[in-house]
Amino acid sequence: MINRRKLLAFTAGAGAATVLAPVAALASSRHHRRGADIVDIAAGNDDFSTLVAAVQAAGLVDTLKGAGPFTVFAPTNAAFDALPHGTVEHLLRPENSDALVNVLTYHVVPGIIRADMLTGRRGRVAMVNGQFIRVDGRHGVRINGSANVTATDIQASNGLIHVIDKVLLPS
Fold it and tell me: Edge-to-edge strand order for the sheet containing 142-143?
């Protein structure tokens, strides 16, 4: 089980892991409250209410409000809705908190990965849970062959958010 203290220790000791060379930026301009962290930005957008509820249930709010920096691949409510029936409810049960933490930390990079570091390239990026995602930025940006990055480089005080249209499930 990765608890918040272990997660903080891991992220503090980890670098940006695999960094993909910059090529071309995906144009993106996002507005938010000055000084808002990753959790504040997600909580302020109705499209992320399921993600916020999951972060709260996993006890990761304080971690994702921490100094970071983090890059979060944030699935929308529609991405959670597309999971098989009952999956979200199952993960949100207290007895499944380890599995929920594993899923959520599979969406977090311990460092900054800007869109211009992904565009035009393929590679692997290490996630907080210790696993890797596969990134293909040659025609848009796809994660693990199925999740599309639909918005990029949403700046938070402690990192970046990239919006994705599917929930990433660790192996």
Answer: 108-109, 70-75, 159-164, 147-156, 142-143, 132-136, 122-126
Check if the beta carbon of residue 140 is closer than 8 Å to that of residue 121: no
β strands within 43-139, DSSP E: 70-75, 108-109, 122-126, 132-136
Q: Is pLDDT at 18 greater than 80 in this prediction?
A: no
**Helix (H/G/I), strand (E/B), else coil: 152:** strand
This prediction has a pTM of: 0.80
In which band, very low, low, confident or very high, does the pLDDT at 35 lie, cut at 50, 70 and 90? confident
Instruction: Quote the crossing angle between the two packed helices 97-105 and 49-57, to the nearest 10°.
Output: 130
64-103 pLDDT, tens digit per residue, is 999 889 999 999 999 999 999 999 999 999 999 999 999 9
Going by CATH, does the domain composed of 4-16+30-114+150-164 fall within 3.30.2290.10? no
The rounded percent of the chain whose pLDDT value lies above 90 is 78
Q: Where are the beta strands (DSSP E) in the chain?
A: 70-75, 108-109, 122-126, 132-136, 142-143, 147-156, 159-164
What residues does each domain of the chain span? 4-16+30-114+150-164
